[in-house]
Here is the input.
Amino acid sequence: MNLIFLGAPGSGKGTQAARVKDRYGLPHISTGDILRAEVTQQTELGREARAIMESGRLVSDEIVLAMVKRRLAQSDCGAGWILDGFPRTRAQAEGLRGILTELDSDVDLGVLIQVEPEEVVRRLSSRRTCRGCGKIFSGAELAPDGGPVPAEGVCPACGGSYYQRDDDREETIRERLRVYEEQTRPVVDFYSVEDKVVEIDGAQPVDAVSDAVLSILRDRFGERE
Ligand code: AMP
Here is the structure.
C-alpha cells in the first residue's frame, strides 16, 4: 500500500498520516521532518535548507528527490509507505514516478485533505511543536480557555519544551499557502488524471477525519496489510 498525503500546510495531513502509520505499520516519510532533522543536526543540507524553510518557500526538487529516493530504497519500505509533504511540485511527482518505475512500484492512492485557507492560518498560527518528542499541539490543547497560546512552554506529553516553528508565523503561513496553490495544486491534478485521488473534508474534527481516511483505506486495501 503506497500512499501520498496531499493538502495545504495545516490541513492535518501529517496527523492523519501518523494515524495510518499506527494502524497499518507502514513507514511515515515526511520530507518536512527529514529536512528539520537536517537543520537541527546542522548538516550541510540543513544549513542550505534552513533559510528557504523559514521563508516558506520550497527546497529544490533535486535535493528533495534525492532524499526520498534514498529513503524509499531502505528495507522497511518494501511492504509499502506513506509519503507526507511530498511530492510538492509537478517535477517531484514526475521524479517520483521515475524512482518508482525503477523499483517496479507505483503510487496506489493520494489522500487529499481539504481545508479552507483562513482555517489553515488560524490553525497554524496557534500550533506548537515539541522539541523533545516531536508531538504537535493545537492552540486549543495548550490554552483550553481560549486565551493566547504561549510561544514556548512545557510539553504536556513528555515534559520537554514546545515552541512555535519559525514557519508557523502568520506572514510565512500566507507565503506557504501561496506556494501551495501555485506549485502543489498541479500535483493533485497529476494524480487526479490517473483517478488516484480521494478527497476528505479536513474541517471536521480530527477523529472524524481519521474515520473517513481509515474507512476508505479499508474499502480499498482491506483491514491491515
Ligand atoms: P512541512 O513540514 O511539510 O510543512 O515542510 C516544511 C518546509 O520544508 C516547507 O515549507 C519547505 O520549505 C520544506 N519542504 C518540505 N517538504 C518539501 C518538498 N517536498 N519539497 C520542497 N520543500 C519541502
